[in-house]
């Protein structure tokens, strides 16, 4: 197992060179796509926060009713 790790080990310069080559292959989103994806993400996070707030409030009220 150690032999495999030693065979695949690269120098930091070679690693960074490979990273640079791979980053050139990446398909980056256009500005309008990025704005749309960001808006969808923010909206999803807000809706999930509201959902969990409502569930938490409901459970809290239920526990209050049980304990009183």
Automatic annotation (TrEMBL):
It is found in: Cell membrane; Membrane. Keywords: Cell membrane, Membrane, Protein transport, Translocation, Transmembrane, Transmembrane helix, Transport. The keyword RNA-binding does not apply. Pfam families: SecE (PF00584). The keyword Plastid does not apply. It is a single-pass membrane protein. The chain crosses the membrane at residues 34-55. Its main location: membrane. PANTHER family: PROTEIN TRANSLOCASE SUBUNIT SECE (PTHR33910). Component of the Sec protein translocase complex. Heterotrimer consisting of SecY, SecE and SecG subunits. The heterotrimers can form oligomers, although 1 heterotrimer is thought to be able to translocate proteins. Interacts with the ribosome. Interacts with SecDF, and other proteins may be involved. Interacts with SecA. This is Protein translocase subunit SecE. The lineage of its organism: Bacteria, Bacillati, Bacillota, Bacilli, Bacillales. The gene is secE.
């Amino acid at each position: 197992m150690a032999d495999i790790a030693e065979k695949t080990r690269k120098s930091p310069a070679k690693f960074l060179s490979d990273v640079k080559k791979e980053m050139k292959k990446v398909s980056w989103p256009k500005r309008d796509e990025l704005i749309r994806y960001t808006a969808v993400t923010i909206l999803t996070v807000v809706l999930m926060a509201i959902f969990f707030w409502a569930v938490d409030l409901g459970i809290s009220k239920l526990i209050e009713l049980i304990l009183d």
